[in-house]
Amino acid sequence: MKAGIRNARRHEAGVSLIELMVALVLGLIVAGSALTLVLTNRQTFAATEDMGRVQEGVRLAFELLNRELRGAGGNPCDGSLDVYNGLRNPGAAWYTNWSNVQGAPPGTAVETGPALLGYGGGTAFPDAAFGTAEGSRIAGTDAIEVKAAVPLSADVAMLTTGIASPFDADIEVSSTEGIEAGDLLMICNFVNASVFRVTAVNAATDTIEHAEGAGASDNLVAMLPLWTTGVPTSRYWFNEGSVVSRVHAARWFIGANGVDTDADGVADGRSLYRTSLVNNGGALGVSTDEIAQGVTDMQVSYLVAGAVSYVDASAVANFGDGSNPIVGVRLQLTLSGDDRIGPNGERLARTMTHTVAIRGRAE
Predict the structure, then answer these.
(1) Contacts of 255 (CB under 8 A, 6+ apart)
(2) Can you give the pTM of this predicted structure?
(3) Could you give the angle at the alpha carbon of 28 between the alpha carbons of 26 and 33, nearest 5°?
(4) Residue 355's CB: how many other CB atoms inside 10 A?
(5) What is the pLDDT of residues 92-116, one digit of tens each?
């Protein structure tokens, strides 16, 4: 009887201490492996989401930059035309300073400004210093400035009856829709292209006025400047079929965005910004928009006509004289994620390069 009880107790005995410790160690190994796998997957997912968000913004930026750079200096008539500027002082503001003709036909100011202008990392904008305040350009990053004439709307306004007097008469167009007093426009045919300022719009008669003004961005005289030297004058007037379009000007740069990325109390975030020309109730000005957050650097190089390699802005000799010999632009953007999920606790970064051929200039 006693032997049976002892055998039963022997069968009911639990695991030993050694067995328990082995089981705990094995359990910890399995749990640790599972936790490591979960954390790794979570980090991978966060990294993918982080960079995907940044790259989506950069894809949009590249698309917009590509569109603007390809059309630099272009107009609906012929992008190779000389551009005359009829404003009193085009050089007073970067967004009005577009012309590539030196000399002074009637109503033409003598300043020249290229349609494509680059700024190296050590060259600040003439009207804005480097800074760390929100929206200010960061020192050491390149910037680029573009001007072109773009359609007013889906239906491009065209001269319907020409101008009775070739210089100072109102411009009669097929439609004044989308045109407002104060707009900066270009009128062109396949011989001339002239920049002027709208002083009044008459929707009833579909006419645009361009009177003389006293401000720097007003018309120097009421006459539209155009080239007539040595040729029959009437051949080069802006007659029926000439096109009226809007002057577009934009700057692209890396600026401070006011975000504290490392929670140290100092705003150190950067974004890609775009500043563009706008008409604010008849007054010309600019609007600055944040295009893509997390773009920490932009480097730009240029291919000059006839050259075999891209160079920095400082090596382009013809930026300042308005001849704009650039046929290609290479953009290099550096992206940085929001989270510190790199191997050493750093932010993930990636550099993307995009090359743009200037429409009508690249061979």
Answers:
(1) 134, 135, 136, 137, 138, 270, 271, 273, 290
(2) 0.82
(3) 100
(4) 14
(5) 999 999 987 654 444 444 456 888 9
pLDDT in tens, 243-288: 999 999 999 999 999 888 777 788 888 999 999 999 999 999 999 9
Q: What number of H helices and E strands is found in the chain? A: 2, 14
Phi, psi of 304 (to 5 degrees): -85, 145
Structural domain spans, the chain: 48-357
Q: Give 204-243 pLDDT, tens digit per residue.
A: 999 999 999 999 999 998 888 776 555 556 666 788 888 9
In the chain, the amino acid numbered 127 is D
The predicted-structure confidence for 133-154, as pLDDT tens digits, reads as follows: 999 999 999 999 999 999 887 7
For 238, the enclosing helix (H) or strand (E) is none
Residue identified by tokens 């070739």 is 166
Instruction: Please give the structure tokens belonging to residue 64.
Output: 């917009």
Candidates 346, 252, 348; CA nearest to 299 is 252
Run of H or E residues at 25: helix 17-70
175-201 b/e with 16+ CB inside 10 Å = b? bbeebeebbbbbbbbebbbbbbbbbeb
List the structure tokens of 307: 């050259």
Tell me the C-alpha distance between 303 and 157, whole Å.
34
> Helix-strand-coil percent breakdown of the chain, rounded to 5?
20, 30, 50
Dig out the tokens for 303 from the structure.
């291919």
Return the structure tokens found at 333.
């953007």
Express as a percent the part of the chain with pLDDT over 90.
36
Angle among Cα 36, 40, 46 to the nearest 5 degrees reads: 145
Position of tokens 């929206």?
135
Task: State both tokens at 281.
Answer: 């109730």
